[in-house]
């Protein structure tokens, strides 16, 4: 799930909702994790309510097991 929400308060509520549903942050405005279709729909409706009429964009991309197995990722972590 990715999002771009202008209002800090609303953006924090979106992030907290994602965490409450067991998703974890992969970028500042991107979360991923496993949800059943019902839980995904439930989260979608909650996020729609949280965003309300505020300026923003929230996108969810469901992936099947086959697609997940084909994900490629490169991550470099530097500690200062």
Spell out the key features of this protein.
80 residues, alpha+beta, two-stranded antiparallel ribbon, 3 helices, 4 strands, globular
Indicate the mean pLDDT.
94
Q: Uncertain regions: pLDDT < 50 for 5+ in a row?
A: none
Categorize the overall geometry: globular
Biggest β-sheet description: 2 strands, antiparallel
Helix content: 40-55%
Q: Quote the distance from N terminus to C terminus.
A: 29 Å
Strand content: 15-25%
How do the helices and strands follow one another from N- to C-terminus? EHEEHEH
The rounded Rg comes to 14 Å
Helix/strand/pairing category: alpha+beta
Beta strand count:
4
Order of strands in the sheet with the most strands? 1-4
The DSSP helix count reads 3
Structure description:
There is one protein chain. By secondary structure, this protein is of the alpha+beta class. 41% of the residues lie in helices and 19% in strands. The protein is built from three helices and four strands, in the order E-H-E-E-H-E-H. It has helices spanning 8-20, 37-51, 65-69, and strands at residues 2-5, 24-27, 30-32, 56-59. The strands form two sheets. The protein has a two-stranded antiparallel ribbon with strand order 1-4. It has a two-stranded antiparallel sheet with strand order 2-3. Strand 2 and strand 3 (30-32) form a beta hairpin. Helix 1 packs antiparallel against helix 2. The longest helix has 15 residues, at 37-51. It starts with a strand and ends in an 11-residue tail after the last helix. The mean pLDDT is 94.
